[in-house]
Amino acid sequence: MNNEELKSALTAVNPNVTFDETSEFMQAFVAPADFRKFMKAIRNNADLEFDFLFCLTCIDWKTNLTMVYHLLSKKHRHQLVVKVKLDDVNNPILETVCDIWKTANFHEREVYDLFGVKFNNHPDLRRILLDDEWEGYPLRKNYVDENMISL
Q1: I want to staple 25 with a disulfide (CB 3.0 to 4.6 A). Which of 81, 104, 120, 134 is the partner?
Q2: For residue 10, which phi and psi values (nearest 5 degrees)?
Q3: Reduced to 3 states, what is the DSSP secondary structure of residue 145?
Q4: Is residue 86 within 8 Å of residue 94, measured between CB atoms?
Q5: How does pLDDT run across 1-49, given as a tens digit for each residue?
Q6: How many domains does the chain have?
């Protein structure tokens, strides 16, 4: 499936999805309200079958956070990056996908621990790298620690 066919198939799943093809991977932007349904559909759709989540992370843009999901279809050999913009940086919340891709379980816990994104319906959302007493989210741009060096 070429990029045009892939865009057409993804638009059939969600007409509101937008695209960026300026990087190595085609990127699809989905609204938080449509996210879970979209992700489940692209996993289960026989023509898309994105069956492998190989990277999940977060980006802090100061004014918002963006969740980034790298997906691969092992059967069809196409790749996609799905991005979701979270406008509420003080209380970022998104639905979990760890029941769709098991690899998301660890990655969502890591993003929760380091960025503070809460994943609704995650079965075990707790810190995974830092102590339970740790305050703040070290990968946030507004994070300050007395041991940090300011430039």
Answers
A1: 81
A2: -70, -35
A3: coil
A4: yes
A5: 888 999 999 999 999 999 998 888 899 999 999 999 999 999 999 999 9
A6: 1
CATH number at residue 13: 3.30.460.80
Give the range of the structural domain holding residue 44, as residue numbers without chain letter: 3-120
Q: How far apart are CA 114 and CA 117, in angstroms?
A: 8
The CA–CA distances, whole Å, from 20 to 7, 24, 53 equal 10, 10, 19
For 67-92, the pLDDT digits (tens) are 999 999 999 999 999 999 999 999 99
Q: What are phi and psi of 127, to 5 degrees?
A: -60, 145
Q: Are strands 27-29 and 79-86 parallel, antiparallel or unpaired?
A: parallel
Determine phi and psi for 125, rounding to 5 degrees: -80, 100
